[in-house]
Amino acid sequence: MARRIGILGGTFNPVHIAHLRGALEVAEQLALDELRLIPSARPPHRTAPQATAEQRLAMVQLAVEREPRLAVDDRELRRDKPSFTIDTLESLRGELAADDQLFLLLGWDAFCGLPTWQRWAELLQHCHILVLQRPDADSEAPEALRDLLAARSVNDPQGLVGPSGQIAFVWQTPLAVSATQIRHLLAEGRSVRFLVPDAVLAYIQTHGLYRGQTDS
Ligand SMILES: Nc1ncnc2c1ncn2[C@@H]1O[C@H](COP(=O)(O)OP(=O)(O)OP(=O)(O)O)[C@@H](O)[C@H]1O
Ligand SMILES: O=C(O)c1ccc[n+]([C@@H]2O[C@H](COP(=O)([O-])O)[C@@H](O)[C@H]2O)c1
């Protein structure tokens, strides 16, 4: 039987409750067999984060360790080049059966940036795209995405058929939390308790991450 696999890529600098809650809610709503969080080793559109790829991976591993619906995939740390999503999808597809369904989760802000991604027009050959609403983001889709949305979007994520090729919007509990906000709070010496899992908070404290810096 075809499997249903979701992936959420991110810099996860650090991973926070909106990533985790969104991933869990989508996994439940779409009855996914697996939802993998994939830390970006070298985020293509950002300056290098202060936390190393290994530290960001470790925080994601701690965050999901007691949640059987969520898993971590470290393949982007095993590639010695920028973490392009098309490469990740091609590599995943090489491990799946042809009829397995692959769902790429993107927050609204990430989705709006799609036309700037490496070989972006090929992404839907490998996966469906699930767009997560994000309360802290602008609402207009860029012009470059209008035709794609008109041709490929379906109203109900339950209506996504086949292994790849369509776009749907998914509901998640709106959480206006960002990693930027968390880094800023930590730089100011303030608490981020309840914005990240306790195990992630302990890791940040043990490794002295995000102290005295205002970004990245
Ligand atoms: N609060 C949120 N609600 C919905 N989606 C989110 C939220 N925060 C992040 N995402 C999505 O999760 C994915 C990974 O995000 P990322 O690791 O860049 O976190 P971030 O909080 O956006 O980080 P930063 O503040 O450093 O830009 C992206 O697709 C992003 O849109
Ligand atoms: O493939 C690309 O060109 C590309 C460009 C920008 C971002 N991405 C991916 O999008 C995900 C979210 O990125 P970010 O920078 O918002 O954390 C993460 O998995 C990145 O690797 C991918």
UniProtKB/TrEMBL annotation:
Keywords tagged on the record: ATP-binding, NAD, Nucleotide-binding, Nucleotidyltransferase, Pyridine nucleotide biosynthesis, Transferase
Phylogenetic placement of the source organism: Bacteria, Pseudomonadati, Pseudomonadota, Gammaproteobacteria, Pseudomonadales
Presence of keyword Cell cycle: no
PANTHER family: NICOTINATE-NUCLEOTIDE ADENYLYLTRANSFERASE-RELATED, PHOSPHOPANTETHEINE ADENYLYLTRANSFERASE
GO terms for biological process, alphabetical: NAD+ biosynthetic process
InterPro entries given in the database record: Cyt_trans-like (IPR004821), NadD/NMNAT (IPR005248), Rossmann-like_a/b/a_fold (IPR014729)
Domain Cytidyltransferase-like: residue ranges: 7-183
Keyword Nucleotide-binding: yes
Protein's name according to its UniProt entry: Probable nicotinate-nucleotide adenylyltransferase
EC identifiers of the protein: 2.7.7.18
Similarity comment: family membership: Belongs to the NadD family.
Pathway(s) this gene product operates in, as recorded in its UniProt entry: Cofactor biosynthesis; NAD(+) biosynthesis; deamido-NAD(+) from nicotinate D-ribonucleotide: step 1/1
GO molecular function, one term: ATP binding
